[in-house]
Amino acid sequence: MKIGIEAQRIFRKKKHGMDMVALELIRNLQQIDKENEYVIFVKPDEDNTIIKETANFKIVELQGGAYPMWEQVALPKAAAKHGCQVLHCTSNTAPLFCKIPLVITLHDIIYMESSAINIIRSSGSNYQKFGNIYRRLIVPKLVRKSKKIITVSNFEKDCIGKFFGMQNDKRLTTVYNGVSEYFQPVTDAGVLKAVKEKYNLPDNYVFFLGNTHPKKNTKGALAAFSQFLKQTGSDMKLVMIDYDKTELEKLLQEIGDAELISKIVLTGYIVNHDLPAIYAQSQLFLYPSLRESFGIPLIEAMACGVPVITSNTSSMPEIAGDSAILIDPYKPEEITAAMIKVFNDNNLRTAMIKDGIVQAAKFSWKAMAQDVLKIYTETGNQ
Predict the structure, then answer these.
(1) Domains of the chain, with CATH numbers?
(2) Based on C-alpha coordinates, what's the Rg of the chain?
(3) Rounded to whole angstroms, how far apart are CA atoms 24 and 32?
(4) Which tops the pLDDT comparison, 287 or 15?
């Protein structure tokens, strides 16, 4: 069988969640499947050595302009040209007029749950707003058209099932994301020092992975950290990655603590392989999102031996299990109280670290790839 995989953005230098999922899927399929043929469709970009062709994996770089044109025109044309019998689109959307049987990964449907006008008025970037409007237009049609629909947690499967009235539809299935093997406690002093110097990391810090998307609850995390410092007198810093300083200053004005900027370290974009050393040197990982379909950073932090505070909403309890402190993300005071609790109770910290490593081990990219391969086989045999 010849299988096409849409991986448009994996060659871009700054990869994010869905890009990494697609990349790990391809890497692990290369290890476990030597029989089927694969055609990986990507857009030309800087990081074009991130995956290599093998005997049964061909990489096809497609031009095609902006994302919608690339996906709706260039991708189905190329998939047909290369004789694909199944096409897997990995990032929430797919070509509407594709005659090849479609497998689509719906990581989430947050963009369907908000009205179009609320998306336009939201505080996300213009790129995020456009992407969400685009998804709102085509995803309902794709749900009806696709042969298989993969999502990444039982929580999100339930959301999709209820929203589209397909609770009993066998086309919809959960395949958990994984954690890469290099996410583990880092003990090499040379590696730790090099990463610390590269990103100008402080000695003692809380690590927070936020961005401009409202669901990441950056404002709530900052408010909680501000109160943590005021209540404890701690010299702890907050490390944030790839966040615009001007946007940060606006949020600090909104929470009434402009001076907090002196306690925050902005690292810029972090290469994925450097993340374990950043997790490992942190005292705590803070992940109080309002809504997640999975939450890969949760298990990455746990795998690196770091206590985690996360939300009691959406998928996060499902993924974190009993290994994190769960808080109401709409209440910054709960986040603050949880932080104080972790720093004041060494026995709790030790137990959280131990339990977190066990919890993270339940998720692997190899298992994900094996499950997806079964879905390809089922789709090809229909």
Answers:
(1) 2-178+364-380 (3.40.50.2000), 189-360 (3.40.50.2000)
(2) 21
(3) 12
(4) 287
Question: What CA–CA distance (Å, rounded) separates 232 from 25?
Answer: 44
pLDDT tens readout for residues 7-40: 999 998 888 889 999 999 999 999 999 999 999 9
> Which residues 6+ apart lie within 8 Å of 233 measured at CB?
none
Indicate the pTM of the whole model: 0.92
Handedness of CA 313, 314, 316, 321 (dihedral sign): positive
User: Distance between alpha carbon 61 and the CA centroid of its chain, in Å?
Assistant: 24
Structure tokens at 112: 């369907």
Calculate the CA dihedral of residues 197, 200, 202, 207 and round it to 10 degrees.
-110
Per-residue pLDDT tens digits for 185-230:
999 999 999 999 999 999 999 999 877 777 899 999 999 999 999 9
Instruction: Report the greatest alpha carbon distance in the chain.
Output: 64
Look at residue 321 in the predicted model and tell me its pLDDT: 96
The tokens for 238 are: 């907050």
Say how many CA atoms lie within 13 Å of 18 toward its Cβ.
17
Task: Check residue 65 and give its pLDDT.
Answer: 81
User: How far is 280 from 194, CA to CA, in rounded Å?
Assistant: 13
C-alpha 42/C-alpha 289 separation (Å) is 30
| Residue labelled with tokens 């260039």 | 74
- Burial level of 63, CB count in 10 A (0-12/13-18/19+)? exposed
